[in-house]
Amino acid sequence: MARFQRIETSEYLKLSPDDLCYYIGEYTARGGYGVSETNQQIHNLKKRPTSPAGQLHWKNEAIGYWARKLAAHLNLEAASRLITIVPAPCSKPADHPEYDPRMDRICDLLRQREPRLDIRPLLRTPRARPAQHEGDRMSIADLRNSMEIDLAHLAPALRATIIVVDDVFTQGGTFKAMQSLLTELPRVDEVRGIFLAKTVWPPIDFADLLDDE
Q1: Which of 29, 85, 100, 129 lies most in the core, judged by the most C-beta atoms within 10 Å?
Q2: Is the pLDDT of residue 212 over 80?
Q3: Domains of the chain (ranges plus CATH)?
Q4: Is the pTM of this model over 0.90?
């Protein structure tokens, strides 16, 4: 079984020292498709639902790819007994043309492998907000206010540990907003995060900066 890599909380001001967040691959910011397979599969995963059919084919392929990656990293039998899995919600509500439940679809494929998994879409977005990667990043408080708990999924009782599954970890703000909502639910002791990829930035070439001057 493959191993998740842990995100070092000391490198992110928005994380607390006791936060437990993990990732599978590294997504190189501004790197484009060709930098790595992770970049390619994240780009394909994030294709808009209104994209042409040819692009949606690759989006569907990426959903299957990431479901297989998660299954290779998770002990599905143990997870079915110990945790509740919550897919991160889309930044748009369900009636929006850009609604993209990609994380729900990935988790649904996990459940096909292990039907006993406790997977629940506990979080939803009642009003459209800009995606974090498409503009100015919202504060943790504003992100929290942009989401709500879907009360229809609170029964049966939740496990003490919730794992939020999201696509890309950049600064941790969205995770902290989801964590703050979910930790208020009955019987929940902790909320951890699993991310398909962690954002990394290519090193700055100071020689290029000097040439520009």
Answers
A1: 85
A2: no
A3: 5-212 (3.40.50)
A4: yes
